[in-house]
Amino acid sequence: MASTIGSAISSISATPRRSSVATAVNGISSLKSVSFSSRRKSLPSIRLQPAPLRFRISCAAKQETVDKVCEIVKNQLALADNIIVAGSSKFSELGADSLDTVEIVMRLEETFEINVDEASAQNIATVQDVADLIEKLAAEKSA
């Protein structure tokens, strides 16, 4: 059995689907598709098609944006002066319920002149999340 598998594996050959398989873009191979086929019926064809390369650039928000968001959150939740609100502060830990979060988002929309869609608003957990979202929306608005 092992010799059958070994001989079947030795007969597998890689055949590129594109003529320029080894083309490189900024040092990254642009291989789009590879298929392997066997001469024997015992091994099924294997076809690999990687997902397109996607680059995601993620930057932390500017400190001034984080500070402004912290101030708005602290005022909106009427927190005492001794409570520190930082980028890592979670809304749930600050005592914010869903209504408070909606009011905070509305205040941020007015302050930063942006529009936050409902899906993005539901993914907000920390002050840093809000600041990053604000910077992203502001960059999209100015582009």
UniProtKB/TrEMBL annotation:
It comes from the Eukaryota. InterPro entries: ACP, ACP-like_sf, ACP_chloroplastic, PP-bd_ACP, Ppantetheine_attach_site. Residues 63-138 form the Carrier domain. GO terms for molecular function: acyl carrier activity. GO terms for cellular component: chloroplast. It is found in: Plastid, Chloroplast. Keywords: Chloroplast, Fatty acid biosynthesis, Fatty acid metabolism, Lipid biosynthesis, Lipid metabolism, Phosphopantetheine, Phosphoprotein, Plastid, Transit peptide. Carrier of the growing fatty acid chain in fatty acid biosynthesis. Belongs to the acyl carrier protein (ACP) family. PANTHER family: ACYL CARRIER PROTEIN (PTHR46153), ACYL CARRIER PROTEIN 2, CHLOROPLASTIC-RELATED (PTHR46153:SF20). This is Acyl carrier protein. It comes from Ananas comosus (Pineapple). The lineage of its organism: Eukaryota, Viridiplantae, Streptophyta, Embryophyta, Tracheophyta. The gene is LOC109728455.
